[in-house]
Specification:
The chain is mainly beta and 326 residues long. It is 6% helix and 50% strand. The chain is built from one helix and 29 strands. The strands form eight sheets. A five-stranded mixed sheet has the order 2-9-7-4-5, with no helix packed on it. A five-stranded antiparallel sheet has the order 20-19-22-25-24, with no helix packed on it. Strands 6-3-1-8 form a four-stranded mixed sheet, with no helix packed on it. Strand 24 and strand 25 form a beta hairpin. The N terminus is likely disordered.
Amino acid sequence: NFIFIMRSIRVSLAFLLLSFLGIELTAQFTTSIVSAGTTEICAGGSVKAYVYLSKTSGVQYPPYDVVIHGGEGEFMKLEGIDLPYTVYLEAEASDTFFISSAIDDRGRDGETSGEVAVLVREATPVSFDLDRTAFLSTEPGYLLKSAPSGAAFFGPGVAGNSFYPEIAPFEDSPHTITCTYTNSFGCESTNEIDLYVLSGEASLYLISGEDTIATICEESGTYLIQGNNADNLPGVFEIYDGDVQDPLEGFISDEDSTDNQAILNPEGLKGTYDLVYIYGVNELDVRTTLAVVINDLGTIGISGIPTRVCDTDDPYLLLPELEIED
């Protein structure tokens, strides 16, 4: 032990003397890079790696400047670091990372070794496989599906793999639903869709002056049509004649399609008609119907009046004469 201590002292004194005289011994070092775990990641992920001194000789002068390259060129430049040092290698595509240069605090180049080959796995795109996106709040649960199958679903009204309109408030509609799919490599992809829930609560009125009516006694004049719905959506108006499938044209005018109002001109109509208020979203329509009776009373004549009368005549009986078409 005494001999070893003496030799160490002599070596230290020698280094001090050379340093005092301005003479530097050549210092050698090798900087390496190695992964700290798996090198298989999903796109956008990263691999943890260590940069360290794998071999040294002579006096070392930290800190170090280290440059790491990938297939696209310089990836990372580390300045003034102490080794070992932890880095995270981010990659969108498979790549190989290596140390291209390492310089100590005296500006001397060291050797480099090692590489980290990163294998990037792509996520599988996922989409919703639904035949509808709008529901009434009174409807039962609707099974959610994805393409490819096997996604998990999250959002308001979602329980398991079903969407329940009754627990997704129509006041907050639409509801954003997320589906998440994980492929065999563990890579995750997501997608979103808006699902609508409507209350289905609507009313329809035909208004004359300040009164709501369901019977029109003459075809002259116009009448206000007023629709309302709890979902605060704009609607349209149509009028149908009995079992005829197509609406009648030319009797309803709607200058502002957003105010849920229109004007009915019944001229030319006689009988019972279905006035319909329709609102909705996407493939869902809510319809409210009001039966309207339109009667043409015709003209009224007076009979029983002679062509000439005198003030001394007895009173004459006046009789109405109604001219009503069959």
